[in-house]
Alpha tubulin (Crithidia fasciculata), 54 residues
Amino acid sequence: MREAICIHIGQAGCQVGNACWELFCLEHGIQPDGSMPSDKSIGVEDDAFNTFFS
């Protein structure tokens, strides 16, 4: 099992952290409302997705 822990401190840290999470969501096809697109293949697992979003 892989895990990622992100700690954001201060204004700059929070801004960089927010940009990182936006990029993670973009890379894994997560919609702005937090939902997965319905056109994803059922049964196909994305290991990188499970690392960030478990």
